Amino acid sequence: MTNSITRSVIIIGGGWSGLTAATELLKNGYQVSLFESAKQLGGRARCVAFDKHRVDNGQHLLIGAYKNTLSMLKTYDVDMSASLLRTKLTLLVINKNKQTFSLQLGKLPAPLNILFAFLNLKNIPLKDRLKTCGFLIKLRLMQFKLKHDISVKTLLRKQPDIMIKQFWEPLCLAALNTSISDSSAQIFLNVLKDSFTTTPDASDLIIPKVDLATLFVHPAMQYIDQHGGNITLGKKIVKITSDQTSATAIDADGNTYSAEHIVLAGSPSSSINLLKNADLLESSQQLLAQLDYEPICTVYLQYPDNISLPEPMVGLTNCTGQWIFDRRFCQQDGLMAVVISASGDHMQLDKMTLAQIISDELSEIFDWPDADKSFVVREKRATFKSSVNINQYRPGNASSDARIWFSGDYTLSRYPATLEAAVQSGLQCSQQIINQSH
After folding, report:
1. Do 162 and 218 have their domain in common?
2. Whose CA is closest to 301, among 367, 354, 357, 355?
3. Exposed/middle/buried for residue 330 (C-beta within 10 Å: 0-12, 13-18, 19+)
4. Which of 181, 203, 225 is the last residue of a domain?
């Protein structure tokens, strides 16, 4: 770094939030040094190898409402049509008895598109369809805002059981990675509002056709490098200090790096450790320690090339698997990614047993043969638990120390732990740093 620390920032953590913050700060003339303790960037959204394929450590899905993420991809000059499969929302959900639930949004203005889609549902009694439409109208009149947070299960207490099982519960698990019994209704409503009441394309399904490293991480690295930023991999920062004029990061080898600001963009637990070592921000430590976590399990199953789904993504009910993605859109014919959100008995099973259970379920539903190969990825702390009133424990980007900042999907926002929340936090953190300097 230069002798002057003015307009300089150290970012600790190379996930999507840290990369976004680095990008925005560089845009505004800051010197940026990013340190990542792992040998690759991406954080919890990283690429792994399975057989002949490059896959992600979990199957991810974007929606049209993720404006910040889509904007960052444009900043990185990503070829959107080549990298993303974007379709109108089609939710096909199938249970073990092969009964189907299909919701398809048309081109009507929001929210008429979702109301029309519910009214035209097949295999659902008319009274249940009308009840669901009435519920959505009521939510809109409430502006999707609750006086007090409650669980999603309580929010849905008057909804028909079939709609809870076939639509609301799968949607909540996918969006919040938390069971309806525990999840925050207000955060769930925020997602619904942005997805179904703004613009017709906000509810679009957007599935990456490339791995997340190719989609986001590599273009971000290139941008940061081209704009004078510095990225150091495999370097663990073990301590930070702060005074009135600067902040300092110290690595495991005793090297010191000083800057005007330090952004903690790693996991909450890594941030707690750094703050404990420095005896800093005890109140922030206490907040972060209140966060609980939920796993995400992804089971990759390789079938013959001719095996495919009727849609790129299909929901499963009364099964261990919850959502299945056909990786044909990634030019990986016959490869399926089955996602299991939140905690459950599946986390106690060994990988081979779990893969066989999933393979058996798909054979029963789709009349497929046994999978040829399997690969199970478990992220035990994939997201924070989006429980009732969780936002009172999520720290803001700014801390009580003017030199130290937080950036990550866990920081205070309207959203649960998603890629969009991570990007949004990086943008907000960097903008607050910039505003402080003016």
Report:
1. no
2. 355
3. buried
4. 203
For residues 283-315, b (16+ Cβ closer than 10 Å) or e, as one string? ebbebbeebebbbbbbbbbbbeeebbbebbbbb
How many other C-beta atoms are found inside a 10 Å radius of the C-beta of residue 376? 21
Burial class (CB in 10 A: 0-12, 13-18, 19+), 52: exposed
**Tens digits of per-residue pLDDT, 181-233?**
999 999 999 999 999 988 889 999 999 999 999 999 999 999 999 999 999 99
Contact by Cβ (8 Å): 104, 93: no
What count of other Cβ atoms lies within 10 Å of the Cβ of residue 127?
A: 9
CB 342 within 8 A of CB 268: no
Is there a single domain that holds both residue 402 and residue 286?
A: yes
The CA-based angle 237-242-245, given to 5 degrees, is 125
What is the identity of the amino acid at 211? D
Count the domains in the chain. 2
Residues 277, 218 within the same domain = yes
Asked if 204 contacts 88 with a C-beta cutoff of 8 angstroms, the reply is yes
pLDDT averaged over the chain? 94
Half-sphere exposure of 361 (CA within 13 A, CB side): 23
Convert the pLDDT of each residue in 122-157 to its tens digit.
Answer: 889 999 999 999 999 999 999 999 999 999 999 999
Q: Is the pLDDT of residue 109 over 90?
A: no
Domain of residue 240, residue span: 8-46+212-291+394-437
Is residue 286 domain-resident?
yes
CB 88 within 8 A of CB 105: yes
In 3D, which of 193, 197, 189, 194 has the Cα closest to residue 109? 197
Sheet containing 100-104, strands listed edge to edge, beginning at the edge strand earlier in sequence:
100-104, 90-95, 313-317, 323-326, 335-341, 293-302, 373-384
Question: What are the φ/ψ torsions at residue 251 (nearest 5 degrees)?
Answer: -90, 180
